């Protein structure tokens, strides 16, 4: 038993922790949990906890259903919203087969495998997400709680208290918060996490979504990470800042470059741009995800700065990838910002495909195309074509077709996750397109 596991056992005893929730995610990024008593923790470290994998989306068929959840002691945290007496803690788990092999359908394993590829090239992958969400009256009543906009100090005391309590809860769980504010749409908020290595951040994103929902419930409201819940307002994004480090050195920084970007950074960026259409189904995995993007493609309602055009720029928030220039002289701050992902994606899979696309650019020596300086939303289709700017897929069906044809994504996710994801999402798309919507009834019923 290693030192971290010994620390967990000692903490459980000293703090009178009675239950430990073992967390993991399915292929779609839904959080799963099984609770064990404190007396079972040592056994869980040694042998894992058995469960029926056939009951979890994307895990296993009935005839191969036995799985083991093995807790990662480094993720141990006490849950602050549970009672202090006879407390409750949580640990994330890695999933194994009964033969002791990492389970290929475990999203955490998918990310671990891709991080090892980066490590083999000498890199550590760091990320910093800006996660947006809405607060509503309830899960069945999407009425905004205010009419505020970007950075507004709303007079609603509850929402200010909510953000304070959410941040305090996150920090009590060891998750560092950079800042928070009201976003552009009514009742829309953003809490940004301080950068961390990709595996820790994926765990943090899963914890963040749980914490925000728990704290919202305590305040009598409902929090949602649905990408586009309000048709006539901006949707929610998860702009993700990424960089590669070689030891303590930021491999993305070059002080002699006009953009302070190294060749590694440019090749990584070129890789993400080249494979942008292929990774979109993972970054934006729901039918609703494309409602956030559709307005930027000419839809009737505002998309805000939804990045649908495959391009990059230093100050250009209409581009898919932006190079932040807040602190150009600070080497540790050199990074790129990918603006496509939304907060309802599976963070383990999203970070895996982004990393794989970037590494492909480095390995193949992709050349970064010219920067797009103009506002792409104001360009005509002809101007975009002349500039060589293509768009992201316009709906889930188109995104799945791009993904299905991608050798890179199949290799990155592995055959098991790749096949299940495509099958599941095709079912979702078919169910969606079969619906007769209120729009159709209002428009066509009186006239046809």
What is this structure, in a nutshell?
The protein has helices at residues 3-14, 41-47, 107-120, 157-172, 198-218, 263-274, 276-283, 289-294, 347-364, 381-386, 396-404, 407-433, 438-444; strands spanning 17-25, 31-37, 49-52, 66-71, 77-78, 87-96, 124-138, 141-144, 177-182, 188-193, 196-197, 222-224, 238-246, 249-250, 309-313, 319-322, 336-338. The protein has 448 residues and is α+β, with helices and mostly antiparallel strands.
User: Structural class per helix/strand content?
Assistant: alpha+beta
Known CATH architecture of the largest domain: 2-Layer Sandwich
Strand content: 15-25%
- Provide the gyration radius in Å: 22 Å
Q: Return residue spans where pLDDT drops below 50 for at least 5 consecutive residues.
A: none
Shape: globular
CATH class of the largest domain: Alpha Beta
**Number of discrete helical segments:** 13
CATH topology call of the largest domain: Creatine Kinase, Chain A, domain 2
Please name the fourth-level CATH homologous superfamily of the largest domain: Glutamine synthetase/guanido kinase, catalytic domain
- What is the succession of H and E elements? HEEHEEEEHEEHEEEHEEEHHHEEEHHHHH
Mean pLDDT level: 90
- N-to-C span: 72 Å
The number of distinct β-strands equals 17
Instruction: Report the major sheet.
Output: 11 strands, mixed
Q: What count of domains describes the coordinates?
A: 2
Helix coverage percent of residues?
25-40%
Task: Describe the structure in your own words.
- By secondary structure, the chain is an alpha+beta fold.
- It folds into two domains: 3-99, Ubiquitin-like (UB roll); 112-440, Glutamine synthetase/guanido kinase, catalytic domain (Creatine Kinase, Chain A, domain 2), CATH 3.30.590.10.
- 36% of the residues lie in helices and 22% in strands.
- It is built from 13 helices and 17 strands.
- It has helices spanning 3-14, 41-47, 107-120, 157-172, 198-218, 263-274, 276-283, 289-294, 347-364, 381-386, 396-404, 407-433, 438-444, and strands at residues 17-25, 31-37, 49-52, 66-71, 77-78, 87-96, 124-138, 141-144, 177-182, 188-193, 196-197, 222-224, 238-246, 249-250, 309-313, 319-322, 336-338.
- The strands form two sheets. Strands 7, 8, 9, 10, 11, 12, 13, 14, 15, 16 and 17 form an eleven-stranded mixed beta sheet that branches. Strands 1, 2, 3, 4, 5 and 6 form a six-stranded mixed beta sheet that branches.
- Strand 1 and strand 2 (31-37) form a beta hairpin.
- Helix 3 packs parallel to helix 9 and helix 11 runs antiparallel to helix 12 (407-433).
- The longest helix has 27 residues, at 407-433.
- The protein is globular.
- It starts with a helix and ends with a helix.
- The model has no long low-confidence stretch (mean pLDDT 90).
């Amino acid at each position: 038993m290693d030192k971290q596991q010994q620390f967990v056992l000692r903490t459980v005893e000293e703090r009178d922790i009675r239950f430990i929730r073992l967390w993991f995610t399915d292929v779609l990024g839904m959080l799963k949990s099984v609770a064990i008593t404190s007396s079972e923790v040592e056994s869980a470290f040694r042998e894992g906890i058995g469960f029926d994998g056939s009951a979890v989306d994307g895990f296993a068929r009935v005839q191969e259903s036995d799985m083991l959840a093995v807790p990662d002691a480094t993720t141990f945290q006490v849950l602050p919203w549970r009672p202090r007496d006879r407390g409750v803690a949580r640990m994330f788990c890695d999933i194994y087969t009964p033969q002791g092999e990492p389970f290929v359908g475990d999203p955490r394993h998918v990310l671990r495998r891709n991080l090892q590829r980066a490590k083999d090239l000498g890199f550590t992958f760091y990320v910093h997400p800006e996660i947006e969400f809405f607060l509503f009256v309830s899960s069945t009543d999407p009425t905004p709680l205010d009419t505020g906009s970007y950075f507004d100090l709303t007079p609603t005391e509850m929402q200010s208290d909510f953000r304070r309590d959410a941040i305090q809860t996150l920090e009590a769980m060891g998750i560092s918060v950079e800042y928070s504010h009201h976003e552009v749409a009514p009742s829309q908020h953003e809490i940004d996490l301080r950068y961390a290595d990709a595996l820790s951040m994926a765990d943090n994103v899963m914890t963040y979504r749980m914490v925000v929902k728990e704290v919202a419930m305590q305040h009598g409201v409902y929090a949602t990470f649905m990408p586009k819940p309000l048709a006539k307002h901006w949707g929610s994004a998860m702009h993700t800042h990424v960089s590669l480090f070689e030891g303590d050195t930021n491999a993305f920084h070059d002080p002699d470059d006009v953009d302070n970007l190294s060749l590694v950074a440019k090749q990584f960026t070129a890789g993400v741009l080249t494979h942008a259409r292929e990774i979109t189904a993972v970054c934006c995995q729901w039918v609703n995800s494309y409602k956030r993007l559709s307005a930027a493609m000419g839809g009737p309602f505002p998309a805000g700065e939804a990045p649908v055009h495959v391009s990059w720029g230093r100050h250009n928030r209409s581009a898919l990838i932006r190079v932040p220039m807040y602190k150009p002289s600070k080497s540790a701050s050199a990074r790129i910002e990918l603006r496509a992902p939304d907060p309802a994606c599976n963070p383990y899979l999203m970070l895996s495909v982004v990393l794989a696309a970037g590494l492909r650019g480095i390995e193949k020596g992709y050349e970064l195309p010219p920067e797009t300086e103009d506002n792409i939303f104001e360009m005509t289709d002809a101007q975009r074509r002349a500039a060589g700017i293509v768009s992201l897929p316009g709906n889930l069906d188109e995104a799945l077709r791009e993904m299905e044809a991608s050798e890179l994504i199949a290799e990155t996710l592995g055959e098991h996750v790749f096949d299940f994801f495509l099958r599941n999402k095709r079912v979702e798309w078919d169910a969606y397109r079969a619906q007769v919507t209120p729009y159709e009834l209002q428009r066509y019923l009186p006239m046809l």
